[in-house]
Design goal:
Two copies of one chain form a homodimer.
Chain A: E1 2-7, E2 22-26, E3 31-35, E4 47-53, E5 58-59, E6 68-70, H1 76-86, E7 99-100, E8 106-107, E9 113-115, E10 122-123, E11 126-132, H2 141-144, E12 148-155, E13 158-159, H3 160-165, H4 170-174, E14 179-186, E15 195-200, E16 203-209, H5 217-227, E17 235-237, E18 252-257, E19 261-269
Parallel strand pairs in A: 6-17, 8-14, 9-19
Antiparallel strand pairs in A: 1-2, 1-5, 1-14, 2-3, 3-4, 6-7, 10-13, 11-12, 11-17, 12-14, 15-16, 15-18, 18-19
């Protein structure tokens, strides 16, 4: 089932933060069946009877996470390529240590990614995102996937020079608009059959098997839950493989993952 | 003015997450004047007429931040002591690069910090916390403090062996209960006259001038706002000075900052 977070153009005031939004079920005929509340929260998910056409709504970020987790380095080829590009040592993680991203940077499918005027090397990272649907602590790997509500796509946009020069990833990874997520949440997903394809201006630039991770989702979730409580509305971005060309203003980047859809964003120059 | 976030014992169901909470103004006679909504949000802060006694309520975490920022290394003495203790190089940051912590780890004044059974070296870090009250982008250092609603106290509890061994700070800093914050939010605060004192079981173990930071709050906020939007309800933990003894189960740690009050938490052993 596909859960979409949307607003109607007629509803939208100038300030995006105040925009009334709601969830709906997206059917195979591109109709949205609106529901009450938030599907993975108590009392959410009941159909209101309202139906919209996908083409007539604005797609919103699927959710603003409570905690925004990110695996970071989690595909072997990407680790080698990152080391070669930045002139740093190859650093294959020995254990599943989760990292963090920040919600200020989120944008929806079809919203622009703004490249700051002093950014020099901007790259994409196409990622599988797990959305947590129920509170969880001390899960075994076998139990881990039971707390996942569904899956979406993330583009972990990164400025590689800041990633190398700064003590943390704050602006390299979390500059406003650097975290496209969407287009919707799919509850059925077979990661072992999925492929991630990234296109820049329509041409394929990266292609890999989505499930060939160093540490898979059950490993990450089980290990995280040994020390911390996962909450409904948390997300976990699972990392990326391959490499990205330098993305410049005017480029359109599409991340497609089998079964999850296409996340598409145009990159534009900052105007100050 | 002191804003306190509280619940009444009679209101509390078993699950802490579902506990009804509200804000109030704490006066000099330890009375709480309850208000509607959230003081720094639209429509919040109007008195309801209800008055409670401080001794009769449960103090809650002042807020669950939207984004939980932390300066990390921001006092020179602490940087030297951390390097000596961990056997790593002295690393004085050259620029104000903000980091992140996670909301799962928050606990309130007087709530317990639970030491995991496999933790070996647990330390406190007493910190000034700035609470953001309005949306902000591209602030100059002179403008920066205008987006701050008030201040509270944080204890950035850390497991130093994990901090050294792991690729990120995820469990070293963000294990459940490792982030005491409180006891309330004070809107008037003169950091240049403030001192931070930490006591373990009543004996002073750390004492430093709160304002002797490597990068002060206007510097951090201005630099952050060049790349990211600050939002009402974000918090920024400003780092710590000095060193901490190894904290063990049974210890009570108090962080006192001039004008902000005392944040007190007992450390207990995990029971699994």
């Amino acid at each position: 089932m596909r859960w979409i977070h949307f607003s109607e153009p007629a509803d939208r005031p100038a300030a995006a933060a105040d925009r009334p939004t709601r969830y709906g079920i997206l059917d195979d005929d591109d109709r949205i069946h609106a529901v009450r509340g938030t599907p993975w929260m108590a009392g959410g998910g009941e159909k209101t009877g309202q139906v919209h056409r996908l083409a007539e709504v604005k797609i919103e970020v699927p959710l603003v996470p409570r905690t925004f987790y990110a695996a970071g380095l989690n595909y072997v080829k990407h680790i080698h390529e990152y080391a070669a590009k930045t002139g740093t040592a190859v650093n294959i993680p020995e254990q599943a240590d989760i990292g963090y991203r920040a919600v200020n940077a989120l944008v929806a499918h079809e919203e622009d990614v703004v490249i700051p005027s002093d950014a020099r090397q901007v790259e994409y990272e196409g990622e599988v995102v797990a959305v947590i649907g129920r509170q969880a602590r001390n899960l075994s790997p076998a139990e881990a996937m039971g707390c996942v509500f569904g899956y979406t796509i993330g583009n972990d946009v990164s400025e590689r020079l800041w990633q190398k020069s700064d003590r943390t990833f704050w602006r390299a990874k979390n500059t406003d608009t650097f975290k496209p997520m969407g287009p919707w949440i799919e509850t059925e997903f077979d990661i072992d059959r999925a492929e991630t394809t990234v296109r820049v201006n329509g041409a394929v630039t990266t292609h890999f098997r989505s499930g060939e991770m160093l540490f898979d989702m059950p490993t990450f979730i089980s290990r995280m839950s040994r020390y911390l409580t996962l909450h409904p509305g948390d997300v976990i971005w699972m990392g990326t493989d391959g490499k990205s060309p330098n993305i410049v203003a005017g480029d359109v980047v599409e991340v497609e993952i089998t079964g999850l859809g296409i996340l598409r964003n145009r990159f534009v120059a900052e105007t100050r």
